[in-house]
Amino acid sequence: MLNRKVFLLLFLLFAFLFRLLFGLLLYGNPSDDIQTYIIGLKYYCTGVWPYFGPIVGGSETSFVTRIPGALEGFLIGSILKVLPFAEAPFIVLNLLSMGAICFLAWYCHKRFPKFSLFWLLAYMLFLPWELCLTTNINNASFVLFGSVLFFVGFFEAVQELSLGLIPLQPCYAMMGFSLFWVMQFHLSWFFLIPFILLVFFLQFIRDWKKGLVGVVFFILGAIPTASLLAPTLLKFGFERAASGKGFGQIFDLRNFHLWHVILQRFFSIANYEITYLWGSFESLQALIKKSAIFYVYYIFGYFLKYVAECQVFLLILFWFLKDHSRPGWKEFKYLGLLFYLFIWISFWFTVKWPLPHIYHIAYPVVMIYSLYCWYRFVDWKWLVKAVHAIIVIGILFQTAFFLTRSHDYIYQKRDKLQMAIDQKKYLLFDVDNEDSMH
Fold first, then answer.
1. What is the pTM of this model?
2. What are the pLDDT digits (tens) for 165-205?
3. Side-chain half-sphere of 176: how many Cα atoms within 13 Å?
């Protein structure tokens, strides 16, 4: 029999290759994906400093802006300088996102020791939203890496949440690094600010000297990522730091009434929510006639849809339970509530629809809260076996998903993309998208 460590390494290799292939073949949002790649490709081809990152817009308004900072273009362009082939940015992205998930799974295993590390990884690496939002070249795909680093640092810096696994100084450095990482990829960095204020407030009222040390290490951690934002702010002014203010408004009654939708989507971040994926079965009709195996995939998807609904219901219901066998339950359930309320309230003042990818940054908080809920059943052997079966079904369903959505994806333009890389002429890849960026 294989040694457990060898088996785990083989599984991680399989998971990485699966996630890489998923990202390469994912339909995603072609215009956003191509635009993200082009920002780095342009820096690689021309050497012109990428002062700005992704374009931010939406169907809700005609307002369009670009996120300040060079991190997106610098990262993708630098990868191409070292590895000048089309798949290289996908490989690095998946190393970052999978590494973040593995780090979080390790942390969750320490917090919930009866949970198998293997099954935690199998669950977390193949969740629908994680595969869709963290495997393909899109600005939002880079958020998870920063989010996990930030919140693990936050958890360990707050006395009531800490397991004592990471010294205090690195925790503050992780938060500083992550804030300016996320800031240059996605406007959801705004959701991190209350947690930064909270952790420093708690530290200063308990020990102001440690609070000052925390400030120093927060700044030291922020220097690598903030240094890529600084040239943009110095050249174009600090006004550009508020690049999303054009989406604001005094009050949005529509989003106020959508509290229940936001709540459901908030909890769906860390479960088998497949509504976004379910539409892909419309394209399966012709294939179903040719192969009976697609009936099985349809059944799996139908099953997971109701598993996700049950998960959301239980996550809401269990919030009202007081006792738990593991420490930190009370703190994490109120932390989850505060995060949800902050998200809901923030949407009162924007025209943006409350789509899940906007607050996917909450993933580490939602995941740990959900694991507290599921840990109540860790000694129910029959239920544990049933959960393992669901995880396997989820992996099989995801296999069907990316096979049926592999059309009009960025990787379909691989020949043009590689030609642009080889000749260092970024316009060979996609002229229309580049024109729209000016």
1. 0.91
2. 999 999 999 999 999 999 999 888 999 999 999 999 999 99
3. 20
